[in-house]
Design goal:
Chain lengths: 199, 199
Amino acid sequence: MSFVPEPVGRRERNKQQKLDRITAAATELFAERGVDEVTTQQIAEKADVGTGTVFLYAKTKGELLLLVQNANYSDALERGRSDAETVSDVLDAVMAIIEPIVRCNRTQVDNGRTYLREMVFGNPEEPHHAEALAIVVRTEEAVAAVLRRSERVGEAAAATLAHVVSAIMFLAMAATVDKDRSVDEIVKNIRAQVSALLP
Amino acid sequence: MSFVPEPVGRRERNKQQKLDRITAAATELFAERGVDEVTTQQIAEKADVGTGTVFLYAKTKGELLLLVQNANYSDALERGRSDAETVSDVLDAVMAIIEPIVRCNRTQVDNGRTYLREMVFGNPEEPHHAEALAIVVRTEEAVAAVLRRSERVGEAAAATLAHVVSAIMFLAMAATVDKDRSVDEIVKNIRAQVSALLP
DNA sequence: ACTCATAACTGAGTGCAGTCATGATTTGTT
DNA sequence: AACAAATCATGACTGCACTCAGTTATGAGT
């Protein structure tokens, strides 16, 4: 078996490098200053590409944010999911899934809220958007799985309720009204709502 | 008691007239073409005011949309609220409140979704925004009142559940994924979720 | 009637996301 | 090696929401 010789041509490698540079530049600038305080020009400059090039890799600035942050949310979900396995109470287990996501979302409030805005109002056909939606689906599946532990929740009801839970999460994290709330306050707020809908 | 002689000076009257012209122009253009296909310039022109003047009456284009549409939602709520009184089943009564709002929201899909986006992500301190939030509060109160008919729902739980219902409504109407769904489909979708959380 | 202070109006100007015609690179073909 | 076709990169450009320095209208005071 010979060494696999990078089955890609120069073109593919260049593209990958550019994508990496853009991702790195955007990650750093967004984290430092927040998405609204960074221009796409600055990202292009830092990544050492033309301004138009950025938009070959992400169709909008919002998509660029999704590209940069999806991995964080995915990680947060996995952490919560495994935590939830060690928790017996259903409500506590649901909250174990939710808490790391809220924490991830609030690492930088503006970025977190913009991420959510993009998810709901952006174009779901864009690849990074689709990935974000896939994470939501996985989150709802994880919540549904926990809900099914309770024998008071039916198979179908679990999926529906999980969707309701994600609606609750969305509003609690996104609303401008709650902009200045801490992670703990938001989690508490979500908990109260989830608690009300468990039979 | 003498006739109250318009206690306002020329200044106040001029302001009111400008506001009326701007509101009329925006209402018409938004309805005809959709918020994204109309520029603030065009609204200013149609209202016969300077471009800057528009922004004295609404701080952003989004606020302008709230200004124009708030009354419609308020009316829709009142219609639904009175309809709900004639419906005995709790779930049906909640849906009686919701349906006119969804219908109002879908009169023009893009405007409806932008309205919701502005409500959640806009600046709640702006007057038209505050009014929109007040309508949401009244909607939740109406839903809570219906929920309290059921003796299985506690006093506090009713308010919490009503808030959950408005989260469900928001996502069902706002998400790009559901952009092409009809009013009936959306109402059905909401109904399924609300049904799942009634005890 | 005249002056002054204040509130309201204005449109040229600014900054930024996103586009597109043109040019550069790479790959496939002979 | 030479050419053609396809893909990718670029930055000057466009369109639009929003601003602000300068102007005008109003009302209060004398």
